[in-house]
Amino acid sequence: MAEATMDQIVSLCRRRGFVFPSSEIYGGLGSTYDYGHYGVLMKNNIRSLWFRTMVQERDDIVALDSAVILNPSVWEASGHVAGFSDPLVDCKTCKLRFRADKLEDAHCGRKPSKRPGETPDCDLTEARQFNLMFQTQVGALQEASSTAYLRPETAQGIFINFKNVLQLARRKPPFGIAQVGKAFRNEITPGNFLFRVLEFELMEMEYFIPPAEAEKWHRYWIDARRQWYLDLGLRESKLRVREHGEQERSHYSSATSDIEYEYPIGWSELEGIANRGDFDLTQHTQHSGTKLEYVGEGEERYTPYVIEPAVSIERIFVAMLVDAYDEEVVAERERTVVRLHPLIAPVKAAILPLVAKNGDMVAKARGLFEELRKRHIVEYDDGGQIGRRYRRQDEIGTPWAFTIDDQTLEDDTVTVRDRDSLAQERLPISGVRSWLEEALDRPWRTPKQ
Ligand code: GAP
């Protein structure tokens, strides 16, 4: 089929309860979403696969979970109070606010129709800088001294814990600290579903290195992170690495490369890999008076440089669904099938009694279900015709279905149906558990071109 559109993904997510617009019964709130059952399961999978690769399988990276609300001095020192902003313009006629560097995406409230690429026909003010951090108040008093911020990145929580983790644990660069947690940004041109939202789950790792090794490790992490997406089945033709120009880089970065995915909105940032140099540790040393440096044997003492791979679960979630979404005609009937990597798929297997009214089949199917659910997210379904039940599972990306039929009652074998090839084979019911474990361990490549 043609590439999936964002509308198809939004509609699938809503229809099958992956994602709902937030606060819907009150008219919603732009660019905030709630996750339903399958969305939660899929996000859990993305998070735990990231954690497995970045922490569990490495000797040189440990985990951290820092607070969302930090001492406001952190954001002064990090440069976010002064520099984490977008240039905005207001329209004096329609009163809408647009990003000055993205006017081609803007739509005038009075004259919403325009040709692609045109800027809105508005009476625009000069551009002003608008800070993206959400402000809040700590304590009961609303006064300037109690102003705090919701973190726009988790990285600062890592930098301010540098001494706790690296020095106390007597670790030596290269050494990394990884963190997954919510981040908040008052984005002015939000939209495009989960791609740009006000709150998102950021997965970041700060890799502290000797300054002379910065280029080598930057390259290493760009390659490693790109490979991670390929191993999880994203099509190579839809991934590319793009280096930021000087104007584009964040205030803390001396070099950044994005891993981009070709979303329905065009090539856009999936993950950023930045060389932050010693900017953050130096800033926090100066502002806090606490020396954040590596002290080694003898005379060895330096402020490490930092390489930072950072990505939100939301951007991976959309990329995976777009890449996996497929429609095809099988036996003259259309099916929507979501060809997710089995480790990303919310449900690993469905257990289906062929005839729901047959008590013996139901008992066998329930027995298998109870056995498998102890280790995996699996689903039991006896509602409706078997063909419909397969299609329901195809649509949420379940890679395998085990069906209990007449023959099961005779010889204790079941069929296993493959979501992608539709091939079926028989195996003993007692071997299903180990078959599933092995299938989940196998490398997987998408059949999509
Ligand atoms: N600490 C580095 C940092 O925050 P960033 O490029 O601003 O860098 C990192 O953000 C990643 O967070 C991006 O590559 C993207 O995956 C994700 N991201 C950023 N803003 C987002 C938003 N409004 N909604 C969803 N994901 C977002």
Question: What key phrases describe this protein's structure?
Answer:
449 residues, globular, 23 strands, binds glycyl-adenosine-5'-phosphate, single chain, five-stranded mixed beta sheet, seven-stranded mixed beta sheet, alpha+beta
Please characterize this protein's 3D structure.
Helices cover 29% and strands 27% of the residues. By secondary structure, it is an alpha+beta fold. It contains 13 helices and 23 strands. The longest helix has 20 residues, at 37-56. It has helices at residues 6-15, 37-56, 73-77, 80-83, 155-159, 162-167, 214-231, 279-288, 313-324, 359-373, 386-396, 406-411, 432-441, and strands at residues 19-21, 33-35, 61-63, 85-90, 97-99, 128-131, 135-137, 147-149, 175-184, 199-209, 239-243, 255-263, 266-277, 294-295, 301-302, 305-312, 325-330, 333-338, 349-353, 378-380, 400-404, 413-418, 424-428. The radius of gyration is 25 Å and the shape is globular. A seven-stranded mixed β-sheet has the order 3-9-10-16-13-12-11. Bound molecules: glycyl-adenosine-5'-phosphate.
Counted by DSSP, the helix tally is: 13
Query: How far apart lie the N and C ends?
Result: 10 Å
Low-pLDDT ranges? none
Radius of gyration: 25 Å
Q: Could you give the count of β-strands?
A: 23
Helical content stands at: 25-40%
Structural class by sheet pairing and helices:
alpha+beta
Estimate the global geometry from the Cα principal axes: globular
Q: What fraction of residues sit in β-strands?
A: 25-35%
The distinct ligands, each listed once, are: glycyl-adenosine-5'-phosphate
Q: Biggest sheet, in brief?
A: 7 strands, mixed
Largest beta sheet: strand ordering: 3-9-10-16-13-12-11
Average pLDDT for all residues: 93
